[in-house]
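Kindly inspect this today.
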Amino acid sequence: MPPKAKVTREDIKRCAAELVRTKGAAGLTAKALAGKLHCSTQPIFWICENMEEVRGIVREEALERFGEYLRSPREDASPYLAVGLNYIRFAAEEKEFFKLLFMSEGGGDILTAHKEMPFVLDVIEQTEHISGQDAQNVYEEMWMLSHGIATMIATGTARFTEERVRKILHDVYAGLVRNVRKE
């Protein structure tokens, strides 16, 4: 009898994330994961209760990756412009993670429920010296714009140069901030 496969939670996380990255969320099945782990499905379910738990592990991995992207400083952009550019870069470079987090059901209200929202609001408050509902409004309107661009990039329905994206984000953000300060 061959020895039992030694599979860890970290192995499951790594292989499940790789499956989602290459085949999309629909490609994450028990059979596909077992094949990637070179074992039967049994070791997976010794560690995880069900595939919903496996999907949760992948979602957490995607959120960690998203946070790394979003918080990456850029010398070529202001802190808030960097947030928007990094969000869009995440959609371009991690298409399937982007779709999992921001284009599928189960992710909650993407405008207000993601764990990076306080970081983004803090950037607005610190750089523009606006707070409260004004900061929230700027955040939401910029999020909708950035999400639209990112979605078109992730799905391949539009192409933008970084210069064009940078100009769009800058111009809209400047206009929103100017409007808040007039009120």
DSSP finds nine helices and no strands in the chain. The chain has a mean pLDDT of 90. Residues 73-182 form one domain.
